[in-house]
Amino acid sequence: KNEVEQSPQNLTAQEGEFITINCSYSVGISALHWLQQHPGGGIVSLFMLSSGKKKHGRLIATINIQEKHSSLHITASHPRDSAVYICAVIFFGNQFYFGTGTSLTVIP
Amino acid sequence: GAVVSQHPSRVICKSGTSVKIECRSLDFQATTMFWYRQFPKQSLMLMATSNEGSKATYEQGVEKDKFLINHASLTLSTLTVTSAHPEDSSFYICSATKDGLVETQYFGPGTRLLVL
Fold first, then answer.
1. Within 13 Å and on the Cβ side, how many CA atoms surround B17?
2. Considering Cα of B28, then A86, then B77, then B100, what sign does the dihedral take?
3. CA distance B103 to chain A (A)
4. Residues B103, A44: C-beta atoms closer than 8 Å
5. d(CA B58, CA B67)
6. What's the confidence (pLDDT) of residue A94?
7. Which of A30, B28, B72, B77 has an alpha carbon within 20 to 30 A of B5's alpha carbon?
8. Hey, how many other C-beta atoms are within 10 angstroms of the C-beta on B40?
């Protein structure tokens, strides 16, 4: 069974804290997305990974193919980072599965 | 960058009416577009895959006669919710790919549908 699990489900942090959100999946994948969904609903694709690590500003995404695990890190978190972060994986066979999301609130 | 728009952003309609949602790729040609729905506090669920010039492929459990999808051009796909009912109230999101690959998707801002 193809599954995508995220943790934590909810996360509250103080401004400036380092944040980590985790994503685990059950079978081999061809790629993994980290998405950000703001309260208004719009979705932005932050990263697409198939191996290694990517960095964009204060955001870092890593993936370990052998362990079937990816992490999204936010350094020096800010209230504007408050959003739902969704891990989405593409299993071989072109099936796209979404995690249930991590709701992040950054308090000033 | 690749921009995808949706129209309308919000719509309220009466039960029994039909609602059309447009998804446009503004600065690229999208051979494939995807339609998702999202219920409150739940993740996105793929409804259908829309390929330009051909019939959409619906996911299991999605009624193709209720959710009509048309992808008439490389920049426009439409989703029509026919005879809408309150249980169709949801957030509908489209995405588009430049190259037809699932891996490279650009998401629209979503359309919030409320059926009274």
1. 12
2. positive
3. 6
4. no
5. 9
6. 65
7. A30
8. 7
Each residue's pLDDT expressed in tens, for chain B with a length of 116 residues: 678 999 999 999 999 999 999 999 998 999 899 999 988 878 888 899 998 888 899 998 999 999 999 988 999 999 999 999 999 999 999 999 887 777 778 889 999 999 99
Q: What is the pLDDT of residue B31?
A: 86
For residues B103 and B12, the answer to whether their CB atoms sit within 8 Å is: no
- Residue B11 C-alpha, separation from nearest chain A C-alpha, in angstroms: 14
Q: Specify the pLDDT at position A93.
A: 62
Intra-chain end-to-end CA distance of chain A, in Å: 41
User: What's the count of helices (H) and strands (E) in chain A, helices before strands?
Assistant: 0, 11
Q: A48 contacts in B (CB within 8 Å)?
A: 103-104
Q: Mutation test of the interface with chain B: which of A32, A37, A43, A44, choosing the one with the most B Cβ atoms within 10 A?
A: A43
d(CA A46, CA B7): 23
Residue A28 confidence (pLDDT): 82
Token pair of A51, please? 């191996």
What string of DSSP letters covers A43-95?
EEEEEEESSEEEEETTEEEEEETTTTEEEEEESS--GGG-EEEEEEEEETTTE
Residues of chain A with pLDDT under 50: none
**Which tokens hold the place of A21?**
């959100």
Do A71 and A61 meet the contact criterion of CB atoms below 8 Å apart? yes
Spatial distance between the Cα atoms of A1 and B48, rounded to a whole number of angstroms = 21
